[in-house]
Amino acid sequence: MKVLIQAGKVYSQGSLTTMDILIEEGKIQALGQHLVDQDEVDQVIDASGCLVTPGLIDIHVHYREPGFEDKETIASGSRAAARGGFTSVCTMANTNPVPDTPEKLSQLIQKNQSDGEVKIHQYAPITKDLTSDQVVDIPAMKEEGAFALSNDGHGVQSAATMYQAMLAAKEQGLAICAHLEDRSLFNNGVINAGKAAERMELPGILSVAESSQLARDIELARATGVHYHVCHVSTAASLNLIRQAKLDGVNITCEVAPHHLLFHDGNILKDDANYKMNPPLRNSSDQEALVQALNDGTIDLIATDHAPHTEEEKSQGFLKSPFGIVGSETAFMSLYTLLVKRGKLSLERLIALMTDQPRQLFHLETAGTIWPGQAADISIFNLDRPYQVKASDYASKSSNSPLNNTSLYGRTEYCLVDGEIVYQAEGGNSHE
């Protein structure tokens, strides 16, 4: 099948150029102007006035299957990803059961492949049940196709356990992707320890619960040489540690979630658990430091930490509601609207943080880039027309987000995986 994407502003090789893209049999065949006549192709997509990017990559999502299908399934989560412009996602291991044996991991990978509408890569846990000190069989996990190792949702509390895991991961060429949380400093917190916690009389989570475990892990990564990746960094103190570790030659990378870039704890004005996530929204100076770190290269990529929960669960307030918000469908729109349009980040840098960077750092060879011969994983965004975020519109089974009822730019018009349209917005301009 031949597809022609016409007249879009195309991001390729780090720059934006208005041109056409010719796709054949799932691969990009050519880039340029006036490539073929319309009657020579099976489908034409008019991208005039739109941004055309490689399919976005999200290395941090939570699809709740198996075990919590009322929140999200592989099918609904991957539909949400496509609606947000993501063509490759990497899903965490905090399911029930946890895929902590080769057999469980293999079954979940097969389910991802059968039910997913985008390309899904699967994490294996670092330890059994996510909370024990018993490291999983890392060579066997690599053999079954694990993308990387993470206990996301739980910090590895034992330095000896983390060291053992790092040694094995290094030998197998797998990254350790760490959720940083020293439970002895967590204080049963539900919000950042700060003025908002005091005002609302809620137990606060100390920022040092993140940075102290990071300091430990940097020394372990230095000793082992493993690729050590920091999930959802949230504090200025952590950024300083990462910045210095990079200067020292430690093989360390990090991600930031959109919500930590867009909000701080001063934005929490009432007991609304759509602002409850872990790590929590920090103070305004932390937020500003995170945005600056996008520009100076300290932060390597953006990942959503898409964490769906039911409306019933999230209606219980900060003390009783679970941590987490959805992000797949609003990530690009919110970052474009609130950072790029406000001059805090260039459009090219935003795209790189959501495409080139994760692809290169995690060697995601099946993820497309816009160049001849590459997989036609492509997303098309409308930057000019505002879109009202509505809970009823989500493709996800959940809609727990503080962005509901806001107006954002950058709606996904089309999402293609291997040249096939997996999402098309209503009113999309395509014809055969």
TrEMBL record:
Binds 2 Zn(2+) ions per subunit. Its cofactor is Zn(2+). It comes from the Bacteria. It is an enzyme of class 3 (hydrolase). Pathway: Pyrimidine metabolism; UMP biosynthesis via de novo pathway; (S)-dihydroorotate from bicarbonate: step 3/3. Its EC number is 3.5.2.3. GO terms for cellular component: cytoplasm. Substrate binds at H62, Y63, R64, N94, N278, H309, F323, G324. This is Dihydroorotase. It comes from Aerococcus tenax.
